[in-house]
Amino acid sequence: MDWNGFKPFKLAINIFTVALALFILLGFSPSQAKVYKWVDENGRVQFSDKPPVKENKTERIVKEQKKALSKTRKKAKPKPLPINISSGNKRLPDSITLKLQSLLSGKRFSNLNQILEHFQKQLERDITQEEKLFTAYKAFQFNGDGYEPLLTEWITAHPELYQPYLARASYYYRMGWNARGSKWASETEQVQFDAMQEFFLKARIDLKKALKINPKIMPAYGLLINMANADKSNPDESMHTTVALGFTPASYEIRKIYLNSLAPRWGGSFEAMIAFAKESEPYSNDNPRIKMLPGLVLQEAGDLQKNSKAYKLAIETFTKALTYGEIHSVYMNRGLAYSFNKQFDEALSDYSKAIALYAEESNYYYRRAYVYIQQDQLELAKSDILKAKALKHNKEKIKKRSNRIAALFASQGYELKKNGKLKQAIKAYNHSLELNPMDAHNYNRRARALIDDNKLNAAEKDIKKAIKLDPDEYSFYPLLDWVLAKRNDWDQIVSYWDKYIQLHSDNSNAYVERGGAKYRKGDMAGAVEDAKIAADMGNPQGKEAYQKFRHLVR
């Protein structure tokens, strides 16, 4: 299927398709179904009610994997070596993502290599620990430009190692999706597809180099499978999956990624997903997480129901999915269904479970923050959105929600100040400005609360910050004028009015205010001059001042 003409699976619910999938998954045995699966000469997965004439590629893969599996069972699995990955971030102190991003920004390339190699060796010793390695490389999937030179510098410093190539490939992969956007294919311009493919090509070049150095790095195959799935003109999902599972047959992460590529939304089917999940069952002895794959099939079904607003049905499907194991993405999706259905207590419980199982996903905090907003628990919402922002700091939707919470705190601060609760008002403005430190008006509002609380020095700092952020806003200057006048600092008052008048020489009120400051400092000539300018502009106060004081100046 050509990618440019590809239209993602429509999210309108197909009750018959979903019901059929659940029927097959939960009660229809393979022997009853008589469904045969194989990979054709083009590498595409095929299904039929008749078996292929000769031994097919899939049967051959299964035999090879079983043979590899029997060997791995004989090997003892030593305990993983401890390693400290504490990031020092007070909100997410043990985050792998933040630790690695911090090391990259500090150009501590040797430390990066050491930690990533540790996770690789940990996977090779104990396949149940593989999620850490996938999380580690996902840390480099930045959502913005400007990181390529840093990643390239890492490669230049260690061209003999696979880690920096795989890290930069992860970055290119994310940039490819950023370039494409998230709209339907029919709503996406050809130039966006072309840009995605350019980034994907860069990623594939880096992955080829990484795999040449170490062909056993599973996250590299995960990226290749995902890119092949997105590019239907280059359908190599099966090939990359086969190679990866040849090295690590009990990999849940690789099987999960390939299972997703078989989903209806990508042109596959529930039957294909179910067949692969069943085919994977023997490897659950080495990796119990593989038992959760049927739950991911049900998650796909529940997701279709959720997106079609059949929330109660989706919740039932997600609940059934969780009988196959505690899958954090299922908890997140069920939480989302609960949230859409206005069942916020249940949603909060599910989001919290998802985070407890996997604390590295920004979307989980983003979603839980929304529930906290609905429950008017703004401080908890703030805590979560800051965690989401730390993990994906350039994500636009996170920024918007952060600004929304900041606005709610500001509104809260306004009401508290109006009711004379100054300390609580200041605290609310503190929360607001921590979330959105670029809001000039909130600095000004906090300054007014500080003035009422007799904290003039702090108020002065806030007003100056507001002016720095928005020097064109006239209302900031009279307030600063008032605060500085309390200590007779006329020179500084005049200097600030000078700055404003340079920007807005047509504002007659500014001349009146500056003239008043000059008068207070004893500069009568300057005061009269400003009063005359204001008077000539038609300002009543300027006219009054000029008539009153002009005789004092020759």
Strand and helix layout:
Blueprint: H1 15-27, H2 30-33, E1 36-39, E2 45-48, H3 57-74, H4 96-105, H5 109-125, H6 130-138, H7 148-157, H8 163-180, H9 190-213, H10 218-230, H11 237-247, H12 252-261, H13 270-280, H14 293-307, H15 311-321, H16 328-340, H17 344-357, H18 362-374, H19 378-391, H20 396-418, H21 422-435, H22 440-452, H23 456-469, H24 476-485, H25 490-503, H26 508-521, H27 524-536, H28 540-549
Antiparallel strand pairs: 1-2
Note poorly predicted spans.
Answer: 1-13, 27-62, 64-86
Query: What is the approximate shape?
Result: elongated
Alpha-carbon Rg, integer: 31 Å
Secondary structure: helix percent: 55-70%
Order of helices and strands: HHEEHHHHHHHHHHHHHHHHHHHHHHHHHH
Largest sheet: 2 strands, antiparallel
Provide a descriptive summary of the structure in words.
α9 packs antiparallel against α10 and α17 runs antiparallel to α18 (362-374). Mean pLDDT is 86; it is low at 1-13, 27-62 and 64-86. With 554 residues, the chain is mainly alpha-helical. It has a two-stranded antiparallel sheet. Among the domains are: 84-214, no CATH class; 395-470, Serine Threonine Protein Phosphatase 5, Tetratricopeptide repeat (Alpha Horseshoe); 488-554, Alpha Horseshoe (Serine Threonine Protein Phosphatase 5, Tetratricopeptide repeat), CATH 1.25.40. 67% of the residues lie in helices and 1% in strands. A hairpin with a 5-residue loop joins β1 (36-39) and β2 (45-48). It is built from 28 helices and two strands. It is elongated, with a radius of gyration of 31 Å. It has helices at 15-27, 30-33, 57-74, 96-105, 109-125, 130-138, 148-157, 163-180, 190-213, 218-230, 237-247, 252-261, 270-280, 293-307, 311-321, 328-340, 344-357, 362-374, 378-391, 396-418, 422-435, 440-452, 456-469, 476-485, 490-503, 508-521, 524-536, 540-549; strands at 36-39, 45-48.
